[in-house]
Structure formats: C-alpha cells, structure tokens
Amino acid sequence: MTQPTMQQVAESAGVSTALVSLVMRGAPNVSDKRRALVLKAADELGYRPNVLARNLASRRTRTLGIVVNDLHNPFFAEIVDGIQTTAAANDYRILIGTGLHSRRGEADAIETFLQFRVDGLILAGAVVTEGEMERAAKSAAVLAIGRTASSLEIDTVNCDEFVGAHLVIEHLVGLGHRRISHIDGGSGAGAAKRRQGYEDSMREFGLEDHINTASGDFSEAGGYNAADELLTMHPRPTAIFAANDLSAAGALDRVEDAGLEVPSEMALVGYDNTGLAAMHHLSLTTINQPRGEFGRIATELILERLDDGRTTAVHHVVAPTLVVRRTSGPYSETSSEREVAL
Amino acid sequence: MTQPTMQQVAESAGVSTALVSLVMRGAPNVSDKRRALVLKAADELGYRPNVLARNLASRRTRTLGIVVNDLHNPFFAEIVDGIQTTAAANDYRILIGTGLHSRRGEADAIETFLQFRVDGLILAGAVVTEGEMERAAKSAAVLAIGRTASSLEIDTVNCDEFVGAHLVIEHLVGLGHRRISHIDGGSGAGAAKRRQGYEDSMREFGLEDHINTASGDFSEAGGYNAADELLTMHPRPTAIFAANDLSAAGALDRVEDAGLEVPSEMALVGYDNTGLAAMHHLSLTTINQPRGEFGRIATELILERLDDGRTTAVHHVVAPTLVVRRTSGPYSETSSEREVAL
DNA sequence: AAAGATAATTAGTGCGCTCTAATCCCTGGT
DNA sequence: ACCAGGGATTAGAGCGCACTAATTATCTTT
Q1: From the alpha carbon of A30, which nucleotide's C1' atom is closest?
Q2: Which of chain C's bases lie under 7 Å from a protein CB?
Q3: How far is CA B210 from CA B177, B235, B271, B287, B334, in A?
Q4: How far in angstroms lies nucleotide C11's C1' from the CA of residue B46?
Q5: Which 3 state secondary structure label does DSSP give A97?
Q6: Ramachandran angles phi, psi of A202, nearest 5°
Q7: A77 contacts B71? CB cut-off 8 A
Q8: Residues facing B286 on adjacent strands
C-alpha cells in the first residue's frame, strides 16, 4: 500500500526532485529529453502525485467543493453536471458532499471541505444560515445557488421565479383561462416567490378577483389534497398552477379521480421540468430552469474570484422558459359547467 | 484568507504544538485544565485543522471516496445515505465523485480520490474495468456495489437478481397468470441476470412455453416500444415483467393507449422500487432493493479492512423484496380475449 | 520525606511536495 | 577564444501537522 514518492522517481530517473516536480506540473522550461525521462520513470514506478503534500506546499488545491442539499433530487444532479464540465475545462476538480437533509449535516459537509482546504465552495440549495456561509467565505470563495446572500464575499446564482410564474399565467391567459388557482409550496425553496409571482401576474392581467391559493408542500400528497380543496369551489378553477412538478402530479391524480378531462376540463401547469414532467405518461406543461447553466455560470463566477482576483459580489439571475406539453390547453366554455363526483 | 495554524494556537494558549495536536485529536492523557485552555484559544482564533497536513503526517485521511455511476439516478442517493450514516457513526467522512457517465470520467474520479489519499473507495454501479479497480486496490481499500470482482483485494455487495426475478414470477403465477412476458434491460446493469432469473423461474413453474422477451434498454421509450411489440402477439400476454421501473412506466403507457385495463386486463411489474413506482399516479408493483442496506453493509465491510485489518475478500449478497401495488392483479379468463385497437 | 511509579508535556524529526534563489550549461556575438 | 545572456537544473527551506522519545510534573507508597 505504500506509494512511490517524487524522491524515488527522481532517483530512478537520475535527476533532482525539483525537476520531477516541474515535469509533474507541466512547467515549460524543461528539456524534452529530461521530461521524457522523468515521465517514463514515473510511469514505471506507478507514481501518483500526493495532492495532500502538493497542496500543503502550494497552498492551493485546485478543487471545488460542492454542497448539495438533496442528492435525491435530480434537479441537483444537472447542476453538478454543469459544474463538473466547466471545472474540468479549467483544470479544476470537484468533490461533492451532502448534509443528509439537515442544516447541521450541511454545516459539517462545509467544514469537511474547508478542512480539505478546497479553493472554492458552491452551495446548491443549501439551507445553512448566512452566518455559516460568511464564516466559510473567510477561508474559501463561496457561491450559493438558489438563495440570496448579502455579504460582499458571497456570489449567488438564481432563477427569476417571478418571470417563471409570469410565463405560466401568460400562457394560461393566452389560452383563454381566467379562473387560475395556485397550489403553493409552503416554506420550500422559491415557493414564496412563485406565489408572489402568481399573484402579481394575475393582477397584471386584471384577474385579481380570481387569485386563489391552496396550500401544498412541494409533495405529491400535498398537491393531491390541495386539488381536492380547489375542486370544491363554485365555480371551480379551469386551470391550476402548481409550485412544482411533484405537487402537479398529485393534483393531476385528484383531477383525474374526479373524472375531469385534462386539459379540456382542467389545465395543469407545474414547475421545474423534472424528469417526471417529461414522462410520456404525465407530459406536464411546466417551467424549465436551465440547470446545467446554473452550474456553468456558478463555476465561472467562482473561478473569477479564484483566478482573476475579483473581490466584489456578483448576483446572477437567469431566466426560466416555458415548456408546453399535454396538460395545458384552451379554455372551453363548458369546461367548468359539468358537475362531477367528488 | 490565511488560516491560523497549530503553532499560533499553541502560542496563544501558552503550550507546545504537540499538546495542541493531542487536544485536537482527542487524546486521553491531557489534563482538563490544559485541554480547556487549548480549546478556548483554538476557538478564539477560529482554528481549523488542516487535513492535508494532518494526513501527510499520519498517512491516514479517515475519508472514504464514493464513486457514483449516475448522480441522476435516485437509486444511488439512497446508497450514499446509507454509506454516510454508517461512516459518520465510525468517525469517517465521505467525499462523492462522479464520472459524467463515462468510463474515462469514472477512472478520473477514482484517480482524484487516490491523489487525495482516501483510505477507502466505494464504487457504486461503477463501469470501470476490473483492471482499474485492482490498480486502485493497491492504494486504498476498494469495494464495489452492484458488480462482481474476482480480485482478493476487492469486496463486493450485490442484490440477488435471481431471487428478485423469482419473486415477480411467483407473484404473478400465484395470481393465475401463465403468459408472462419480459421486457429486458439490454446491456444495462443487472439486466442479464434479471432476464436469466425470469427464464429460470418460468421453467420452474412449468411455463417454459411462455417464455418470451421483448428487448428494451431501461428507458421509458424502450418500454413503450417493447410493450407495443408484445401487444401484437396472439394470444397476447396477460402480464409483463419489466426489467426496471422506468421501462415499466413506458410499457404502462402503451398498454393504456391500447385501451386495456390495468391490472384486470394486463398486469405489470417493474423492478427497483424507484420513487416513480411509489407515485400514486403510477402505483407500480415492483421489486425493492434495500439500498440503504447496501450502503451500510458496504461501509461496514470496508471499515473491516481499514480498522480490523481484514485482508480476504468478502462478497455480500442481499435479498430483494416484492412490493405489491396496483398494477398487478389476478388473471381473469377473459382478459386476453377482448380485441383492442392497436 | 525520599524514592519509585505514573501521568502530563514537549523537543524534534519527517511526511511528500512547491518554490525561491542559486548554479550550471549552452549559445552566439565580437 | 572570451564573456554575456538566457534557458535548464538543483539545493534547500519550509508548508502544518503527527509521532516517538525524552523530559518534567504529579502522585503513591512506605
């Protein structure tokens, strides 16, 4: 298990350890002859640079730590993809950590990364306090995805939830709908903004009288129950805008249980464009957030701090887009007339 | 950005660096007075141990590297949960890496971990060659989940796919089904074994004449197309066993498109018990693999090598269980009689 | 109260590497 | 043939910590 060191490579190649170091780092001023010599020796010995020692000495790790709120949410997987691709292109490596869904666990994950002396830290959907983030920012470049930060040391990347909600309402209004209800996401990430965006947009289209929100919690069951509540209204809404895809799926279940046709008798729009929404079986109209972009932009921003020495905070906001699928369609006069069994 | 070192803590507390080191490691023979003194100084300075230096000196990182095949697959998230919980209980930390779906990327992720000198490496669904794994095993304890390995240096944890397939067939036969077709997973992980298990079990129940497989690829579209093919048979099968949940969902789509009632006219069983299957909307009967258990067992096994000095390989096989939901039901005489539009 | 035993503390070395400054060697101009 | 100039190479000093062996403080025992 004991690994060969630079020293051994140097001896084997008949050069100094300093030269081996230069070769390993791809330094320019090394003769081709020696370079080949060293590389050959390293290869034969199965030499592998010791990052720990390397970075102890250089005080840089060229490593980014990614703290992911929830590994179960494919949402984050795509963000990580974007980060990884961009990081690799810039010769950085990434390490991923997660906090087992707790604020405490997340803080531990951050601590682990800081102990490993990562150069940068990207927090994707993190729930730690801003104080924690600022503390971390003393030791590494910190960027948060999906939340705001007021510190000068912390960059952020966010999606414009207002625009997203507006796209939904605009779409539904364009289809002729007026009684558009919302199933919100409770205290979940972005839920408040989506709800606000819903209300603002309704007013913008002169539909303030039809603003109506049932409370959900981003879960399937929450969506089901919320839809249940909405169906008892007289007249009932002709369209439902759910705060995320999962609750939209739950709502869809309830609506279909009631015997209503989707979208002719009830239009339904979700949010996030998860794999769920794309499934043929559901085919949910929803809002897409450019997740890979999140990762790419986040990485570029953090590298600006690391490599270009930027010291001011940047808050990047990207625009979401509407993805129209089969659960949204034109309003028909009779759609809310028919009595159904509840 | 420059961080306090042990030296500074020692000076501030008026003790030697060696004492600080002992306190930081929680060594026993330190007086309470000094311990408190050091802890206080460390806290005030915001001291954070440098893992790089620590492990350069001790040649241990107490860190496990987890290489995950596909971050998008929630399957792995639960494995990671199990690993993390068990690791934390044993005072190990974990780092996660992924290979961007390529064999090359995976090898890179392994290399990164080895350069960071992780003590152990857990490969979850890895697709790297066994040669790569053996190479890694020279530098760290290696364990593979979901694949076999012949090297003495590599432990494995697997689910018994034969048992899983058998549970499905037993369940369907118990419901009275005889014409049970299979949608396979092509070259995906475990696909071959599930197919073999299907065939073996069918023979066991004397149904060798009804063995019939349509080829899929673990995708929704693959399942849809495979079901399309199965529906053209005369007489058509009364039950379909899909090699994973996603293709089962695709198949379900096709079956419903054809106007068949599920489960009364066509039973459908998936595999993996993903979140998809649990959705109310789908409610798919499927095979559950104890994913958290995978992680727990894997971690325990690797810690045996690390802390107890085990040097022989252990291959652990765990049993899957059947989860009955709404897509499977009793065979009815007339179920395959009705002509449907294809 | 002295001596021996035990507990607490520290000096000092080395882990494997990077980096600065110094040295070496080769080239070309005169 | 000599020296300047510049590219190639190396010696040597840390980076922040753990660990062994040695030292000092504290406690027993008689």
Answers
A1: D8
A2: 7-12, 14-20
A3: 11, 11, 20, 22, 18
A4: 26
A5: strand
A6: -60, -45
A7: yes
A8: B323
pLDDT band at B63 (very low <50, low <70, confident <90, very high): very high
Examine the pLDDT at A8 and tell me if it is beyond 60.
yes
In sign, the C-alpha dihedral spanning B114, B116, B117, B122 is negative
* Chain B residues close to A135, C-beta within 8 Å: 46
Burial label for B43, CB within 10 Å (0-12, 13-18, 19+), is: exposed
- C-alpha to C-alpha distance for A222 and B40, rounded to whole angstroms: 48
Closest CB from B48, B84, B275 relative to A100: B84
Query: What is the crossing angle of helices B161-174 and B191-204, to 10°?
Result: 40
Tokens of A264: 């002719």
A322: three-class secondary structure by DSSP? strand
- Say which nucleotide is closest to residue B38, CA to C1' distance: C9
Using alpha carbons, select from B295, B299, B296, B276 the residue that is nearest to residue B286. B276
* pLDDT tens digit sequence for A228-285: 999 999 899 999 999 999 999 999 999 988 999 999 999 999 999 988 898 888 899 9
Cα–Cα distance for residue pair B23/A328, rounded to 1 Å: 63
- A53: which chain B residues are within 8 Å (Cβ-Cβ)? 52, 56
CB of B13 within 7 Å of some strand C atom? no
pTM of this prediction exceeds 0.90: no
Contact list, B61 vs chain A (CB under 8 Å): 52
Q: Do A95 and B96 touch (CB under 8 A)?
A: yes
Whole-number Å distance, CA A89 to C1' C26?
Answer: 38
The alpha carbon of residue B91 is apart from the nearest alpha carbon of chain A, in Å, by 12
- Window A45-64, strand D contacts by Cβ < 7 Å: 53, 56-57, 59
Closest CA to A143 of A302, A277, A285: A302
Q: Is it true that the peptide bond before A235 is cis, omega within 30 degrees of 0?
A: yes
Return the closest-CA partner of residue B1 out of A67, A156, A60, A96.
A60
Contact assignment for B115 to A85 by CB distance below 8 Å: no
Task: Compute the distance between CA of residue A6 and CA of residue B150 in angstroms, rounded to an integer.
Answer: 32
